Amino acid sequence: MKTKQIIEAYATLKSAKLTQMSSEDKFKVIKIMRVLRPIATEWDEFIQTIDEKCKGENHDEIIKDAQQWQTEGEKTSIPLTRRIEINNYLNKYNKERQRMIEEEQNKEVAVRNLSKAMISILKSQRLSMIVSLITNF
After folding, report:
1. Over its length of 137 residues, how does the chain's per-residue pLDDT go in tens digits?
2. pTM, rounded to two decimals
3. For residue 108, what are the β-bridge partners?
4. For residue 99, what are the CA distances in angstroms to 42, 50, 105?
């Protein structure tokens, strides 16, 4: 499975309400989540690392100015040269960050302890199908 599919499946299962399910099926969902959780946690740490390591020297100052500009709108007190600098920095930062995220999202990840049927359902991202086929887990 691709990292992106695992992250989306974990988020879907994590936010799902299991109250209408039988205890047995709830336990199966929890077991699936337990298998996917380390990958999701690793993903969150990866995103935090990207955010920290891609920051330029004046990142916090630029963000502060960008927020001020956004709040003030067209009548901002921030000079045009600074606004150009903000745009250039944020465009470069976001482009680099997005490239790294996309590259990692598309990596294939081995998921142990899940049946092939469950992996194919997780890939399709259909929670109702996950719930209906959970008895096969």
Report:
1. 788 888 888 888 888 887 887 787 788 788 888 888 999 999 999 999 999 999 988 999 999 999 999 999 989 999 999 999 999 999 999 999 999 999 999 888 877 666 665 665 555 545 555 554 444 44
2. 0.70
3. 2
4. 18, 11, 10
